[in-house]
Q: What sequence folds into this?
């Protein structure tokens, strides 16, 4: 498969990799761009449960990886979204998407260990390694996470994995208002409760998840309830999290400090939203005014649907660095 | 205006070192085998001074090396012949500590442990904890992607850096990342971490702070062989546990630590294993029972659990002082930092034992067993004819073994000057070339810390290994 991809790249003037196309905004490009389909380049190449690592081809569906890991009691702690929609590993890395579970141990940038990639000139490269700890060479795995397929074509990825918790327990907390929810979220996030996930909503409702050994979670929730005295705590089914699996809203990295003013503008514009990762990530329903709102708050946003993936002020990639990867300018801009 | 007079117009005399006696303190870092006299040392106190200095170096084509406390274990902060050393120790402020957002913004010369101390009142800490954390700086941690004893669960320095203000080696000042755990676009912050000073200098570093665990459970077990201790580690992993730390030491390391700090390790064991569980009380209580069963089945000679916080610190003191303590057994030593797949730890240790016998040198082993990061410590006497050469040969053979086993030449110390010759064994020519081109994107004139990571260029002459002055004082240890 790699030689065929190399031929295609060498013959094409403009190129862009694609996976399962679950995030169509990333591949909404002019017709003269040759879409390099990676979905046939799939399969787990190596999986060593005792090493906490696996290597898979970029076109491998996340679900296939999650099933293989689950058979050995392991999981992807960064909790990738859109797995249920059929997203591939490569596409998820290129988009840089994490789910709510990234709160506890970190996001995909923290679990990616190695990459194999093609450059548009057809050359094949490796970065990082296959062991869980490695400080040799430049960290291309991190650089390419979130690069939207515009720096390199990911072909194979190595990840660290963790043992899956024996059980999970979800609960909602009614804080009453967004300001109270934000305050409680920040308090819980720096507490000893070791939350597995923490999202909250404009109406002041928090959705939390604990993860750990059988029999330990109810006592932990009881303890948390005592500390969050002002909010009514109610255990709920874990399916509360499923909505995020299929959500194709705009990803906006945020901090606790910007949420109140941002939320006021979003409310005024009538845009639905939820705040994930204890106030580090906003998922916002797309709308024509969203780009302008993001500009006003100096926040970049990643759209998964629509004519372009980039909303608001995007961070610049130094031109000389871009040219190292794509000297002939074969990748489309964003 | 000459380079020197330009420096004099930027710095007052007390922050511009030119005299040989003053420069000698900056000739070496933690790898004392390398020593290069720089042309001058400057001690900036503001980020603007750093930027002006870099721009001056660009105009004059003078190579520079940024340096913190000089604790590099790969020769990463050894100066360049006739180059400038930009010493960042006075740029050491914590500019911001936000317990609500759980971030800190610090200057590059800020001491690693100072961050955790400042975050402590809020129940937070900065997770990367290299053994030199009492003196090593955040700028150095970023440049070499430093590790510590908690990397399997928490990752390395790069996993805790959210944003950077940098001055690139072409004089541009850029901001990357931010204060959010999330980001969009290529991760330039992540690329800068571990770039060994070859792109430029970090001026401000945004750190992620995480909550300190509620409860710790620290267990120390003795075994009749390091292999058996390694099997116990595999059993812990197979049980689906994720301890905060899993550390192994062999007999030579135990003896040294015991003599140095009287840490109360088992007297007859060929190796000891330290396992530390951490987390919410209920979870640790549950894992404690599982761990007790695993240890009972693991054929340990004896084991004990830390009674209280002081006892826990004593167990860790033995581990953390092991390397400087081993250094007392021998006039000179080399510490290596290779990584092997965890399941091959036993095999790797046997092979290191064989290799050290073949070379007629003693080798102590202290390692991060959870992530397969070996720290073989090769003892030799630099005054004995040919011993340094034999020690270097042995170190090289151990690195080659790590590569052959599918591991890496460095887990947390970086490539630096010391291991650059091994990079082509780890990376194909096309990958080395891409790295060089990447470096030139940020440093077109190759003036930022040249000679590190890439095998080309003049190697500074080796001199005899010996203890770093700070090691002799017991301040610095190699890990």
A:
């Amino acid at each position: 498969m790699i030689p065929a991809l190399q031929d295609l790249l060498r013959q094409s003037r403009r190129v862009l990799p694609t996976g399962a196309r679950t995030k169509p905004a990333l591949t909404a490009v002019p017709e003269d761009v040759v879409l390099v389909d990676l979905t046939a380049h799939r399969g787990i190449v190596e999986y060593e449960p005792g090493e906490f690592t696996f290597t898979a081809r970029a076109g491998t569906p996340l679900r296939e990886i999650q099933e293989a890991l689950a058979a050995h009691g392991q999981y992807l702690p960064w909790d990738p979204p859109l797995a249920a929609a059929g997203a591939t590993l490569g596409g998820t890395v290129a988009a840089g998407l994490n789910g709510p579970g990234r709160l506890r141990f970190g996001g995909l940038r923290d679990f990616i260990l190695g990459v194999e990639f093609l450059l548009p000139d057809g050359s094949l490269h490796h970065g990082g390694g296959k062991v869980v700890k490695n400080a040799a060479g430049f960290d291309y795995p991190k650089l390419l996470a979130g690069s939207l397929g515009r720096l390199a074509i990911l072909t194979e990825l190595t990840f660290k994995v963790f043992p899956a918790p024996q059980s999970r327990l979800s609960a909602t907390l009614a804080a009453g208002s967004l300001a109270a929810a934000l305050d409680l979220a920040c308090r819980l996030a720096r507490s000893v409760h070791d939350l597995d996930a923490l999202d909250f909503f404009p109406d002041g409702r928090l959705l939390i998840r604990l993860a750990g050994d059988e029999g330990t979670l109810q006592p932990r929730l009881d303890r948390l309830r005592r500390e969050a005295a002002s909010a009514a705590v109610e255990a709920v089914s874990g399916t509360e999290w499923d909505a995020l699996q299929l959500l194709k809203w705009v990803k906006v990295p945020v901090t606790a400090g910007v949420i109140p003013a941002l939320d006021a503008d979003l409310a005024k514009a009538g845009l639905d939203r939820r705040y994930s990762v204890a106030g580090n990530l906003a998922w916002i329903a797309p709308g024509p005014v969203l780009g302008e709102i993001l500009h006003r708050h100096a926040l970049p946003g990643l759209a998964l649907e629509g004519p372009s993936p980039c909303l608001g002020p995007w961070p610049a990639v130094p031109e000389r660095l871009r040219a190292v990867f794509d000297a002939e300018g074969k990748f489309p801009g964003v | 205006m000459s380079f020197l007079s330009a420096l004099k117009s930027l710095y007052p005399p007390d922050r511009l070192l030119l005299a040989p006696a003053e420069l000698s303190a900056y000739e070496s870092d933690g790898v004392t085998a390398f020593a290069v006299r720089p042309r001058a040392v400057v001690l900036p106190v503001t980020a603007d001074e750093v930027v002006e200095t870099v721009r001056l170096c660009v105009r004059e084509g003078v190579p520079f090396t940024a340096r913190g406390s000089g604790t590099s274990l790969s020769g990463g902060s050894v100066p360049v012949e006739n180059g400038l050393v930009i010493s960042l120790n006075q740029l050491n402020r914590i500019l911001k500590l936000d317990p609500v957002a759980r971030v800190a913004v610090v200057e590059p010369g800020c001491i690693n442990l100072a961050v955790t101390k400042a975050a402590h009142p809020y129940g937070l800490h900065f997770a990367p904890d290299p053994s030199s954390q009492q003196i090593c700086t955040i700028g150095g941690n970023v440049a070499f992607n430093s590790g510590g004893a908690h990397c399997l669960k928490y990752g390395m320095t790069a996993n805790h850096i959210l944003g950077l203000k940098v001055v690139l080696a072409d004089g541009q000042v850029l901001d990357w990342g931010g204060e959010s755990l999330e980001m969009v676009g290529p991760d330039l912050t992540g690329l800068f971490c571990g770039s060994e000073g070859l792109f430029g200098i970090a001026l401000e570093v945004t750190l992620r702070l995480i909550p300190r665990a509620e409860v710790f459970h620290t267990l120390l077990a003795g075994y009749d062989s390091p292999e058996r201790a390694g099997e116990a580690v595999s059993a812990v992993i197979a049980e689906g546990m994720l301890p905060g730390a899993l550390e192994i030491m062999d007999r030579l390391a135990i003896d040294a630590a015991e003599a140095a700090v009287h840490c109360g390790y088992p007297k007859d064991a060929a190796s000891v294993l330290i396992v530390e569980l951490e987390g919410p009380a209920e979870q640790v209580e549950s894992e404690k029972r599982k761990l007790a069963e695993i240890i009972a089945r693991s054929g340990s000679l004896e084991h004990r659990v830390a009674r209280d916080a002081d006892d826990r610190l004593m167990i860790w003191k033995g581990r953390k002082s092991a390397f400087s303590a081993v250094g007392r057994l021998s006039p000179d030593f080399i510490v290596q930092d290779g990584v092997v797949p965890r399941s091959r730890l036993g095999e790797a240790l046997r092979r290191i034992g064989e290799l050290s016998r073949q070379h007629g040198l003693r080798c102590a082993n202290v390692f991060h067993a959870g992530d397969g990061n070996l720290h073989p410590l090769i003892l030799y006497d630099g005054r004995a004819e040919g011993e340094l050469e034999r020690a270097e040969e042995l170190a090289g053979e151990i690195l080659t073994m790590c590569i052959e086993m599918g591991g890496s030449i460095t887990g947390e110390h970086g490539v630096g000057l010391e291991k650059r010759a091994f990079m082509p064994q780890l990376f194909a020519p096309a990958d080395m070339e891409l790295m060089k081109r990447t470096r030139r994107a940020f440093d077109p004139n190759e003036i930022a810390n040249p000679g590190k990571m890439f095998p080309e260029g003049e190697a500074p002459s080796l001199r005899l290994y010996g203890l770093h002055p700070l090691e002799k004082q017991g301040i610095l240890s190699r890990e």
Remarks:
- Chain A is about 30% helix and 25% strand.
